[in-house]
């Protein structure tokens, strides 16, 4: 997958398996017409329903609690988008599909359980869920879409499941209280702007990582050190720029591609090998170096 990378536009250059299109059946679906007649604070979608339709409860601000019966197997795109008073969601293990932006802009959402067999979190699913502090991602996950958790201001920790090979464009962008992130050993790509403005002091990049995308860790103002594994072949521009506390970067091999201004020029010291490509790069951009020969 990583061998096909030729530009910073990941949608174009990554041979990425796209998740199957969300299947939706109108039969036995909880729809917007039903929702308009059923505006309650504690919404229970009962056993007579097999799915929640697209935009079914979009912008219904009266809902505080949501409970889905075990008969529900899918949630349509934008189904609960803009439910700004929604605090908790109880979801059965039978749910197999959650549509794009299904819980986007649920600004007070604090509690939600994801089914243990869920394979895909689609783009923008939890965008702007500003009250969400933690979420357990099931080990069954194979794909997390772009902008899935963008601007989840209070998200504090996340463990990426083992099967995930790519952190997509702006997945955790603007999660300014994200203090701990655990990356899986099989991760190959950290995408463009994936962790902009997060708050972890360190992050363990796994052996086997191939690409660190454009501005991947831009403005991570608490980041203090980073060890870049020898498997990394491409570090795109501004990957660690705007990280004023980043004092130590260990880079003991020569990646094929090193973009402009990877780090700030102030306090960052790059630990590298003398007369290496990295050494020449640091001289060009006037970064401090410490040799580990």
Topology of helices and strands:
Blueprint: H1 10-13, E1 29-30, H2 32-36, E2 42-45, E3 51-52, E4 65-68, E5 74-75, E6 88-90, E7 97-98, E8 111-112, E9 120-121, E10 143-144, E11 157-159, E12 166-167, E13 180-182, E14 189-190, E15 211-212, E16 225-227, E17 234-235, E18 248-250, E19 257-258, E20 269-272, H3 277-285, E21 288-291
Parallel strand pairs: 1-3, 2-4, 3-5, 4-6, 5-7, 6-8, 9-10, 11-13, 12-14, 14-15, 15-17, 16-18, 17-19, 18-20, 20-21
General description of the model:
The chain is mainly beta. The protein has 3 helices and 21 strands. It has helices at 10-13, 32-36, 277-285; strands spanning 29-30, 42-45, 51-52, 65-68, 74-75, 88-90, 97-98, 111-112, 120-121, 143-144, 157-159, 166-167, 180-182, 189-190, 211-212, 225-227, 234-235, 248-250, 257-258, 269-272, 288-291. It has a 5-stranded parallel β-sheet, with no helix packed on it. The two termini are 33 Å apart. Residues 1-15 have low confidence and may be disordered.
Produce a short descriptive summary:
With 293 residues, the protein is mainly beta. It contains 3 helices and 21 strands.
Primary descriptors:
Leucine-rich repeat, LRR (right-handed beta-alpha superhelix), disordered N terminus, mainly beta, 4-stranded parallel beta sheet, 21 strands, elongated, 5-stranded parallel beta sheet, 293 residues, Leucine-rich repeat domain-containing protein
């Amino acid at each position: 997958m990583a061998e096909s990378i030729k530009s910073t536009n990941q949608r174009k250059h990554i041979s990425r398996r796209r998740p199957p299109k969300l299947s939706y059946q109108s039969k036995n679906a909880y729809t917007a017409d039903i929702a308009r007649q059923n505006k309650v604070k504690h919404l229970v979608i009962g056993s007579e329903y097999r799915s929640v339709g697209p935009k079914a409860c979009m912008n219904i601000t009266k809902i505080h609690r949501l409970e889905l019966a075990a008969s529900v197997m899918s949630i349509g795109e934008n189904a609960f988008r803009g439910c700004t008073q929604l605090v908790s969601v109880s979801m059965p293990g039978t749910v197999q599909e959650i549509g794009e932006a299904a819980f986007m802009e649920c600004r007070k959402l604090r509690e939600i359980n994801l089914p243990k067999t869920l394979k895909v979190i689609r783009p923008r699913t939890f965008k702007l869920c500003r009250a969400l502090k933690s979420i357990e991602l099931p080990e069954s996950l194979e794909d997390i879409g772009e902008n899935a958790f963008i601007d989840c201001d209070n998200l504090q920790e996340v463990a990426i499941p083992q099967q995930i090979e790519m952190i997509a464009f702006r997945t955790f962008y603007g999660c300014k209280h994200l203090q701990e992130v655990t990356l899986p050993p099989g991760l190959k790509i950290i995408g463009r702007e994936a962790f902009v403005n997060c708050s972890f002091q360190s992050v363990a990049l796994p052996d086997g990582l191939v690409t660190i995308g454009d501005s991947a860790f831009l403005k991570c103002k608490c980041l203090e050190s980073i060890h870049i594994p020898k498997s990394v072949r491409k570090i795109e521009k501004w990957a660690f720029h705007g990280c004023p506390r980043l004092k130590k970067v260990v880079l003991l091999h020569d990646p094929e591609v090193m973009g402009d201004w990877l780090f700030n020029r102030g306090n960052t010291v790059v630990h590298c090998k003398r007369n290496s490509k990295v050494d020449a790069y640091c001289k060009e951009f006037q970064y401090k170096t410490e040799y580990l020969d």
